[in-house]
Protein backbone atom coordinates (compact mmCIF):
# COMPACT_ATOMS: atom_id res chain seq x y z
CA UNK A 1 0.00 0.00 0.00
CA UNK A 2 1.43 3.41 -0.95
CA UNK A 3 2.42 5.65 1.93
CA UNK A 4 0.51 8.92 2.19
CA UNK A 5 3.09 11.39 3.48
CA UNK A 6 0.58 14.23 3.26
CA UNK A 7 -1.42 12.78 6.17
CA UNK A 8 1.47 11.34 8.16
CA UNK A 9 1.93 12.85 11.62
CA UNK A 10 5.62 13.72 12.04
CA UNK A 11 5.14 16.01 15.03
CA UNK A 12 6.22 13.30 17.51
CA UNK A 13 9.71 12.99 16.01
CA UNK A 14 12.47 14.55 18.12
CA UNK A 15 15.48 16.50 16.79
CA UNK A 16 17.82 13.49 16.77
CA UNK A 17 15.37 11.38 14.77
CA UNK A 18 14.82 14.23 12.29
CA UNK A 19 18.58 14.72 11.80
CA UNK A 20 19.11 11.01 11.11
CA UNK A 21 16.18 10.87 8.67
CA UNK A 22 17.58 13.83 6.71
CA UNK A 23 20.96 12.11 6.34
CA UNK A 24 19.30 8.81 5.41
CA UNK A 25 17.31 10.60 2.68
CA UNK A 26 20.60 11.89 1.23
CA UNK A 27 21.73 8.31 0.67
CA UNK A 28 23.71 7.62 3.83
CA UNK A 29 23.77 4.24 5.56
CA UNK A 30 23.41 3.70 9.31
CA UNK A 31 27.21 3.37 9.46
CA UNK A 32 27.95 6.65 7.68
CA UNK A 33 25.23 8.44 9.72
CA UNK A 34 26.91 7.15 12.89
CA UNK A 35 30.29 8.45 11.70
CA UNK A 36 28.88 11.89 10.82
CA UNK A 37 26.88 12.35 14.03
CA UNK A 38 29.33 10.78 16.48
CA UNK A 39 26.89 8.06 17.51
CA UNK A 40 27.17 4.29 17.45
CA UNK A 41 25.46 2.29 14.73
CA UNK A 42 23.23 0.74 17.39
CA UNK A 43 22.17 4.19 18.60
CA UNK A 44 21.32 5.25 15.02
CA UNK A 45 19.26 2.09 14.42
CA UNK A 46 17.47 2.56 17.74
CA UNK A 47 16.39 6.08 16.78
CA UNK A 48 15.23 4.84 13.39
CA UNK A 49 13.14 2.15 15.12
CA UNK A 50 11.60 4.81 17.39
CA UNK A 51 10.81 6.99 14.35
CA UNK A 52 9.14 4.07 12.55
CA UNK A 53 7.11 3.21 15.66
CA UNK A 54 5.94 6.82 16.10
CA UNK A 55 4.85 7.18 12.47
CA UNK A 56 3.71 3.63 11.71
CA UNK A 57 6.00 3.39 8.65
CA UNK A 58 7.78 0.04 8.31
CA UNK A 59 10.71 1.18 6.11
CA UNK A 60 13.34 3.65 7.37
CA UNK A 61 14.29 4.77 3.83
CA UNK A 62 10.66 5.27 2.84
CA UNK A 63 10.08 7.26 6.04
CA UNK A 64 13.17 9.41 5.39
CA UNK A 65 11.99 10.29 1.86
CA UNK A 66 8.49 11.12 3.10
CA UNK A 67 9.90 13.18 5.97
CA UNK A 68 12.12 15.30 3.68
CA UNK A 69 9.30 15.74 1.14
CA UNK A 70 6.89 16.96 3.82
CA UNK A 71 9.53 19.18 5.40
CA UNK A 72 10.30 20.82 2.02
CA UNK A 73 6.60 21.31 1.35
CA UNK A 74 6.10 22.95 4.76
CA UNK A 75 8.97 25.36 4.00
CA UNK A 76 7.31 26.39 0.74
CA UNK A 77 3.92 27.14 2.27
CA UNK A 78 5.20 28.70 5.50
CA UNK A 79 3.53 32.03 6.31
CA UNK A 80 4.98 34.78 8.47
CA UNK A 81 2.90 34.65 11.69
CA UNK A 82 3.64 38.32 12.45
CA UNK A 83 1.84 39.51 9.34
CA UNK A 84 -1.78 40.22 10.24
CA UNK A 85 -4.66 39.56 7.83
CA UNK A 86 -5.74 42.43 5.64
CA UNK A 87 -9.21 43.78 6.33
CA UNK A 88 -11.74 43.15 3.60
CA UNK A 89 -14.52 45.28 5.17
CA UNK A 90 -15.65 48.43 3.30
CA UNK A 91 -15.54 51.77 5.07
CA UNK A 92 -18.81 52.66 6.81
CA UNK A 93 -18.77 56.17 5.33
CA UNK A 94 -17.19 57.71 2.25
CA UNK A 95 -13.84 59.53 2.38
CA UNK A 96 -13.83 63.14 3.53
CA UNK A 97 -13.22 66.05 1.19
CA UNK A 98 -9.77 66.65 2.67
CA UNK A 99 -8.86 63.02 1.99
CA UNK A 100 -10.04 63.34 -1.62
CA UNK A 101 -8.01 66.53 -2.05
CA UNK A 102 -4.87 64.87 -0.67
CA UNK A 103 -5.39 61.94 -3.05
CA UNK A 104 -5.69 64.21 -6.12
CA UNK A 105 -2.65 66.23 -5.05
CA UNK A 106 -0.53 63.11 -4.55
CA UNK A 107 -1.56 61.85 -8.00
CA UNK A 108 -0.43 65.11 -9.63
CA UNK A 109 2.90 65.09 -7.77
CA UNK A 110 3.52 61.45 -8.77
CA UNK A 111 2.79 62.23 -12.45
CA UNK A 112 5.26 65.13 -12.41
CA UNK A 113 7.94 62.96 -10.76
CA UNK A 114 7.46 60.17 -13.32
CA UNK A 115 7.75 62.61 -16.24
CA UNK A 116 10.96 64.09 -14.83
CA UNK A 117 12.40 60.64 -14.21
CA UNK A 118 11.63 59.53 -17.77
CA UNK A 119 13.32 62.63 -19.19
CA UNK A 120 16.47 62.07 -17.11
CA UNK A 121 16.63 58.40 -18.12
CA UNK A 122 16.35 59.26 -21.82
CA UNK A 123 19.19 61.80 -21.64
CA UNK A 124 21.52 60.04 -19.23
CA UNK A 125 24.58 58.28 -20.72
CA UNK A 126 24.15 54.51 -20.76
CA UNK A 127 26.26 52.67 -18.21
CA UNK A 128 28.59 49.95 -19.50
CA UNK A 129 27.09 46.50 -19.17
CA UNK A 130 28.92 44.05 -16.95
CA UNK A 131 29.81 40.73 -18.58
CA UNK A 132 27.28 38.02 -17.93
CA UNK A 133 28.70 35.05 -16.03
CA UNK A 134 26.86 31.78 -15.87
CA UNK A 135 26.65 30.36 -12.39
CA UNK A 136 25.17 27.11 -11.21
CA UNK A 137 23.86 26.72 -7.70
CA UNK A 138 24.86 23.35 -6.29
CA UNK A 139 21.93 21.17 -5.24
CA UNK A 140 24.43 19.26 -3.06
CA UNK A 141 25.40 22.27 -0.94
CA UNK A 142 24.06 20.54 2.19
CA UNK A 143 25.38 17.10 1.29
CA UNK A 144 28.13 16.16 3.82
CA UNK A 145 30.15 14.35 1.13
CA UNK A 146 29.68 16.51 -1.96
CA UNK A 147 29.27 20.09 -0.72
CA UNK A 148 31.31 22.45 -2.89
CA UNK A 149 32.35 19.84 -5.45
CA UNK A 150 29.97 20.67 -8.35
CA UNK A 151 31.33 23.23 -10.81
CA UNK A 152 28.91 22.89 -13.74
CA UNK A 153 25.42 21.85 -14.79
CA UNK A 154 25.97 18.18 -15.67
CA UNK A 155 26.82 16.74 -12.21
CA UNK A 156 24.13 18.93 -10.68
CA UNK A 157 21.55 17.62 -13.16
CA UNK A 158 22.51 14.02 -12.46
CA UNK A 159 22.36 14.62 -8.68
CA UNK A 160 18.81 15.93 -8.94
CA UNK A 161 17.72 13.36 -11.57
CA UNK A 162 18.78 10.43 -9.40
CA UNK A 163 16.84 11.69 -6.41
CA UNK A 164 13.69 12.11 -8.52
CA UNK A 165 13.85 8.58 -9.93
CA UNK A 166 11.46 5.94 -8.71
CA UNK A 167 13.74 3.42 -6.97
CA UNK A 168 13.96 -0.09 -8.45
CA UNK A 169 14.57 -1.63 -5.02
CA UNK A 170 15.74 -5.19 -5.93
CA UNK A 171 18.16 -3.97 -8.61
CA UNK A 172 19.27 -0.90 -6.63
CA UNK A 173 20.06 -2.82 -3.43
CA UNK A 174 22.22 -5.39 -5.23
CA UNK A 175 23.94 -2.79 -7.41
CA UNK A 176 24.78 -0.55 -4.43
CA UNK A 177 26.50 -3.50 -2.69
CA UNK A 178 28.43 -4.38 -5.86
CA UNK A 179 29.52 -0.74 -6.30
CA UNK A 180 30.83 -0.48 -2.74
CA UNK A 181 32.78 -3.72 -3.24
CA UNK A 182 34.24 -2.62 -6.61
CA UNK A 183 35.47 0.72 -5.27
CA UNK A 184 36.81 -0.93 -2.10
CA UNK A 185 39.16 -3.02 -4.22
CA UNK A 186 40.48 0.11 -5.94
CA UNK A 187 40.85 2.15 -2.74
CA UNK A 188 42.77 -0.59 -0.94
CA UNK A 189 45.75 0.29 -3.15
CA UNK A 190 45.84 3.68 -1.41
CA UNK A 191 45.36 2.42 2.14
CA UNK A 192 41.74 3.63 2.24
CA UNK A 193 39.34 1.36 4.10
CA UNK A 194 36.37 3.66 4.60
CA UNK A 195 33.44 2.63 2.36
CA UNK A 196 32.20 4.87 -0.43
CA UNK A 197 28.55 5.95 -0.50
CA UNK A 198 26.56 4.28 -3.25
CA UNK A 199 23.01 5.28 -4.15
CA UNK A 200 20.93 3.90 -7.05
CA UNK A 201 17.46 4.69 -8.36
CA UNK A 202 15.97 3.03 -11.41
CA UNK A 203 18.57 3.69 -14.11
CA UNK A 204 21.11 6.00 -12.43
CA UNK A 205 23.66 5.38 -9.67
CA UNK A 206 25.86 7.75 -7.69
CA UNK A 207 29.15 6.99 -5.97
CA UNK A 208 30.52 9.61 -3.56
CA UNK A 209 33.61 9.76 -1.37
CA UNK A 210 35.60 12.30 0.63
CA UNK A 211 39.23 11.41 1.37
CA UNK A 212 42.40 12.90 2.83
CA UNK A 213 45.34 11.83 0.66
CA UNK A 214 48.72 13.23 -0.37
CA UNK A 215 48.97 15.11 -3.66
CA UNK A 216 50.81 12.20 -5.25
CA UNK A 217 48.14 9.71 -4.25
CA UNK A 218 45.25 11.92 -5.39
CA UNK A 219 46.88 12.28 -8.82
CA UNK A 220 47.22 8.51 -9.20
CA UNK A 221 43.73 7.89 -7.76
CA UNK A 222 42.15 10.31 -10.23
CA UNK A 223 43.81 8.41 -13.07
CA UNK A 224 42.60 5.05 -11.71
CA UNK A 225 39.05 6.34 -11.21
CA UNK A 226 38.96 7.04 -14.95
CA UNK A 227 40.87 3.92 -15.93
CA UNK A 228 39.90 0.84 -17.90
CA UNK A 229 40.08 -1.58 -14.95
CA UNK A 230 37.34 0.25 -13.07
CA UNK A 231 35.27 0.66 -16.26
CA UNK A 232 35.47 -3.11 -16.83
CA UNK A 233 34.42 -3.79 -13.23
CA UNK A 234 31.44 -1.44 -13.59
CA UNK A 235 30.43 -3.06 -16.89
CA UNK A 236 30.28 -6.45 -15.14
CA UNK A 237 27.58 -5.12 -12.82
CA UNK A 238 25.70 -3.50 -15.72
CA UNK A 239 26.81 0.14 -15.41
CA UNK A 240 28.60 2.64 -17.62
CA UNK A 241 30.21 5.94 -16.60
CA UNK A 242 28.27 9.16 -17.38
CA UNK A 243 29.93 12.08 -15.57
CA UNK A 244 31.74 12.92 -12.36
CA UNK A 245 33.82 15.37 -10.34
CA UNK A 246 37.40 15.03 -9.11
CA UNK A 247 39.03 17.16 -6.42
CA UNK A 248 36.97 19.70 -4.55
CA UNK A 249 37.44 22.69 -2.24
CA UNK A 250 40.21 22.87 0.35
CA UNK A 251 42.72 20.10 0.97
CA UNK A 252 40.21 17.26 0.96
CA UNK A 253 39.72 15.07 -2.10
CA UNK A 254 36.06 14.79 -3.13
CA UNK A 255 34.91 12.48 -5.89
CA UNK A 256 31.48 11.74 -7.30
CA UNK A 257 30.62 9.49 -10.23
CA UNK A 258 27.28 9.14 -11.98
CA UNK A 259 26.69 5.83 -13.70
CA UNK A 260 23.91 4.72 -16.04
CA UNK A 261 22.24 1.31 -16.19
CA UNK A 262 23.37 -0.30 -19.45
CA UNK A 263 20.21 -2.36 -19.94
CA UNK A 264 18.04 0.76 -19.62
CA UNK A 265 20.15 2.60 -22.21
CA UNK A 266 19.97 -0.33 -24.62
CA UNK A 267 16.19 -0.57 -24.22
CA UNK A 268 15.61 3.15 -24.89
CA UNK A 269 13.79 3.74 -28.23
CA UNK A 270 15.68 5.48 -31.03
CA UNK A 271 14.66 9.15 -31.70
CA UNK A 272 11.77 9.57 -34.17
CA UNK A 273 12.93 9.57 -37.79
CA UNK A 274 16.34 8.10 -36.99
CA UNK A 275 17.12 4.62 -38.27
CA UNK A 276 18.71 2.19 -35.79
CA UNK A 277 22.44 1.68 -36.17
CA UNK A 278 23.60 -1.34 -38.12
CA UNK A 279 25.36 -4.03 -36.07
UniProtKB/TrEMBL annotation:
<dbReference type="InterPro" id="IPR036388">
    <property type="entry name" value="WH-like_DNA-bd_sf"/>
</dbReference>
<dbReference type="InterPro" id="IPR016032">
    <property type="entry name" value="Sig_transdc_resp-reg_C-effctor"/>
</dbReference>
<protein>
    <submittedName>
        <fullName>Helix-turn-helix transcriptional regulator</fullName>
    </submittedName>
</protein>
<dbReference type="InterPro" id="IPR000792">
    <property type="entry name" value="Tscrpt_reg_LuxR_C"/>
</dbReference>
<feature type="domain" description="HTH luxR-type">
    <location>
        <begin position="6"/>
        <end position="71"/>
    </location>
</feature>
Amino acid sequence: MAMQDDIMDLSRLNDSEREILRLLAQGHTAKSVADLTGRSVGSVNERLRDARRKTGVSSSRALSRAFVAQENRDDLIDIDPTEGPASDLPEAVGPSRSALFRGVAMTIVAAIALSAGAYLLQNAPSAPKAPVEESYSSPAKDDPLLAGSFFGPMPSDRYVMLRKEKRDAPWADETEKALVASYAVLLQKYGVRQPVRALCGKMTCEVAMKLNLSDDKTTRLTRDLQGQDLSDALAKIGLTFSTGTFGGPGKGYIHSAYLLRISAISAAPAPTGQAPESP
